[in-house]
Amino acid sequence: MQGNRLVIQQLNKNLGVLLVTINQYFLHARILKNWGLTELGEHFYKSSIVEMKQADAIIERVLLLEGLPNLQELGKLLIGESAEEIIKCDLTKEQEKHAILLDAIKICENEQDYISRDLLEKQKDINEERIDWLETQLEQIASMGLPNYLQLGAQED
């Protein structure tokens, strides 16, 4: 099935930021684990797996549209040097991904590729939940202080 060139471009743009996010979350998970922040590290590890599954779905969609998934144009990883900085870096990357998703969803809608749009909409929902979680973590750090936050570990909800 020959896909729309603009849609494939947007899917690949989204794929690129997903691949960066996978690596960023994975490295942050390992850094946190190394620091003894196991629960927080586990949260970021699970996030990297979710991102990987989303990237896999995008790759499959691009291939179905007879496009070539672009795994070569990767952006910059944002690596934190403290737990708070890690959360801020990941929030920045998620916000970047959100803007790319919104653009891609619009283009899919305009090009009447509703299946790709639905795939991206599901990803956007997960992205919004993750942004909310990261913002909540930063609010908790601000209200209780970093040492107390770190003693509590990652709070899932």
From TrEMBL:
Family: Belongs to the bacterioferritin family.
Keywords: Heme, Iron, Iron storage, Metal-binding
Binding site for Fe cation 2: E51, E94
Domain of life: Bacteria
Cofactor dependence: heme b
Domain (Ferritin-like diiron) ranges: 1-145
A Pfam family annotated for this UniProt entry: Ferritin
Lineage of the organism: Bacteria, Pseudomonadati, Pseudomonadota, Betaproteobacteria, Neisseriales
Biological process per Gene Ontology, one example term: intracellular iron ion homeostasis
Claim: Iron is one of the keywords in the record: yes
GO terms for MF: ferric iron binding; ferroxidase activity; heme binding
Sites where the protein binds heme b: M52
Chain sites annotated for binding Fe cation 1: E51
CC annotations in GO: cytosol
Name of the protein in its database record: Bacterioferritin
